[in-house]
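hey can u run this one w/ adenosine-5'-diphosphate bound, need the structure tokens asap thx
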Amino acid sequence: MNLIREGTLLAVENFSSSPIERRYSLLEVVSLLPMHYALGERPEGYPGFVVEAARNAARDWVEQEHEAMEEVTKIRCIAIPTNQEIRQNSNGTSLDVESNLPMVGARVYVLDTASTTAVLNYGIRHHQPRFEVGHLTRDSQVRVELVPEEMLRTHFAIFGFTGAGKSNLISTLIYKILQAYRSCTAERQRSVVKILVFDLMSEYATLLSDCLLELSNACIVALTEETLPGAVLTYMEAQPTDGNLQGLRREARRALVRTTLYPKALAAYRAKFDYFWHEALKYQSPRLKVWKEEVGDLGKLLRSLWQPRGGLGANESEIRRRVEAICGAFNGQPLTQETFQRAIAQIDNLESAQIQRNNQNVDLLSTTAAREAVREWKESLQEYAKSAILSRSLQPQFILSEQALLSDLDSQEKSSLYVFQSSDPDLLRRVAARIGEKMFERRRWSGRIEPLVLFLMDEADEFIPQKAEGSYAESRAIAMTLARRGRKFGLCLGIATQRVRYLDTSIMAQPHTYFVSKMPRKSDREAVAEAFGISEEMFRQTFKFQKGDWLLMSYDAVGMEAVPIPIHCEDANQRIKQFLDELEQKYRQRSAQHAPTS
Ligand SMILES: Nc1ncnc2c1ncn2[C@@H]1O[C@H](COP(=O)(O)OP(=O)(O)O)[C@@H](O)[C@H]1O
Ligand SMILES: [Mg+2]
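ok here u go:
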């Protein structure tokens, strides 16, 4: 029971074997059960006998530990084919596609650590960026490698109940992907990667704090003014000549330390995040920026937001004329709170306007469709007005413009990491959709397929739900486009969720790499089993999983195609703790006047 576990590899001689070449089919143990034949599978019958038999059975497990004296104790293993075989001949040992069935009744061998490692990582070529994603849960010596390029290009998904460690795993994966690309020395062009995280729960500033500082092209991107504490915006407005720049930076930093969300394991490290935010708020190269969409002038924006669905009734031509007049009035006008207020006031006028028809005063917006169209127009304008960029005159280095982002995503120079956060989830979905669409169009026009751009959506059911309207429809549409057609343009999708059955079902078949942890609901397990084409039985082992244990299945990214591998991944919180400790150390070594806590 201690030697053989789920994930153990077995070798059985198969029918292709011959005197000159031995061939062994490889199987993987997926479940095992201790059996005592005095009790049988279902202990029924006279209780007196059953209890007595059970007492003896328990003794047998201990007394016959090394050798079965009586044939009553057995461990029943269920193993599935891996479709691989080991070939042994005078030239040595090699691995190949399985050529025949295992011989029934033949002796079964258990692979040791070295052979298991070799088999599991067999398909991985050494010149490509790769990293160790974790180790086998049953044997920490067996390191399992993953090829990020394949994982990204063919999309990946992380499924598990709340607290299973999905966000934690995302942090680990991003850290390792960035590292793998950085340390890949092969002379290949494709040595950078671009990662966009849509962070609905605002948890990745802490979970990725090390990457955000270590990578020169990395930042947290706040979408709305309310996303950031007032002190931060004040600091972002400060002129370089401001004598109190350090004082403002301190205020901003403190506000961020107070308002950031920390996972429980990092709560005790809260004070040390002071150092992180101090670094992240460097005036010349900040790692915290505010998002600015490229919308040109207000006239242009008004035109782009006017999107009536269907006809507007009898007054249609008059409505369209007046809408165009409003847009025209704001041609060339800048986007400021003041111009927005004026535009909104004009739309208000439209809503209450009356016109003459057949010598009678009637409402201009005479149909529900017309009223809806104008109301939506106003609302989307109001949403824009919430963006931080409008009411503040931030210093340019604190702004991430859409143009700058898009051109960076096409640049081969450096890897990048952007963590998008917003106090308004609708806006986060809209911005994800907007960036996705623009990127897709750009790549389609240019025919560019590199570098890889990963769109990562944690809490994916909030981006790709089955029933979608409003901003949900927008984020779902782009996720579907990326999943179905992004591959040939180097646009990749990564999703994580606890609610598989709330996801749009057609998205499920797209990812080629899955990480699956505990999922208590049968319907969730069924959805994954069906999408990946495995039996639900495979998930039995996940019931025993601890935090950080994952069933890794991949068609492309691991050495063994489509064989579920139970692995354990390291705890990202430990990495962050070490990073913060080192950062603190660095500050202590510097002179006291530079220390942020002074
Ligand atoms: N690989 C791991 N090793 C140890 N503990 C982990 C691991 N992954 C997650 N945890 C623990 O579980 C907690 C919840 O993880 P989290 O990633 O937030 O789960 P989820 O996103 O699935 O809800 C973390 O704060 C951490 O303490
Ligand atoms: Mg999470």
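The radius of gyration is 30 Å. anyway lmk if its weird
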